[in-house]
UniProtKB/TrEMBL annotation:
Biased composition (Basic and acidic residues): 62-73
Biased amino acid composition, Acidic residues: 190-202
Alphabetized InterPro entries for the sequence: SprA-related
Record-given protein name: SprA-related family protein
Record organism: Thiomicrospira aerophila AL3
């Protein structure tokens, strides 16, 4: 779902965050050569003045040069159109994958960047999808579920961009922080249930497992961020 503008880093504090834009397909205009123009010589549906004028046919060498030039222009025209069509399909499929996976957390429709082809038509050469990557204040469990959706949306295209991987890594970090908060809440609940007469808190039996999970989450986040930086480099 390279998916342009960057996504600002999201701090770890659990205050409400503004919505963020996920820009995933930067504009990649197709180079249009001077030969690939939508004039009469480039348009395969029209004939050159030479072929319509019987008097010009007497000069065979001139005819051959004109025919070769016309074929070259027509080939350049068709090549550019094919490249623009392929880019348009790629961008639309990429962004649609993001939008479909984002579900209720998409902040709007797809925004496309267009390039005008030599045929006068508009082709999508870049695009972006807005995604809400803010945590849900006071509800770490819901935040974890939301960030899982955000991760899937960021990595939904067949070939995620470096920016996509960055957003997925940021969502993973948000989820890791939510898990820490959730585990702390559960540990506190266990302490309250297991307090003895001295009111001394007890440590949860799975404290080592909690610490291991936190360390694994942090390691995964560092790996994903490094992969994103490598792709952009």
């Amino acid at each position: 779902m390279d998916i342009g503008g960057g996504l600002a880093y999201i701090p770890s504090a659990w205050a409400p965050k503004p919505q963020a834009a996920l820009n995933t397909q930067p504009s990649q205009p197709v180079s249009i050569t001077p030969n690939a123009t939508a004039d009469e010589s480039a348009n395969p549906s029209t004939s050159s003045p030479t072929s319509q004028n019987p008097l010009a046919a007497s000069d065979t060498a001139t005819d051959l040069r004109e025919d070769a030039k016309e074929r070259q222009q027509r080939q350049a025209y068709e090549q550019v159109i094919a490249q623009l069509q392929a880019r348009d399909r790629e961008v639309r499929a990429h962004e649609q994958a993001h939008l479909s996976a984002a579900g209720p957390y998409a902040t709007g429709g797809i925004q496309y960047d267009y390039q005008t082809g030599p045929d006068g038509k508009q082709y999508a050469v870049g695009g972006s999808v807005g995604i809400d990557v803010s945590p849900i204040p006071g509800d770490p469990e819901a935040t974890i579920q939301k960030m899982q959706v955000v991760q899937r949306a960021a990595l939904a295209p067949a070939e995620p961009s470096g920016q996509d991987i960055k957003v997925a890594a940021q969502a993973a970090q948000q989820a890791a922080e939510a898990r820490i908060e959730l585990q702390a809440e559960r540990a506190e609940e266990m302490n309250e249930l297991n307090q003895d007469d001295t009111d001394e808190p007890t440590q949860p039996d799975n404290l080592a497992e909690i610490n291991d999970n936190i360390e694994r989450n942090n390691f995964d986040i560092r790996i994903q961020l490094q992969n994103a930086l490598n792709l952009e480099g």
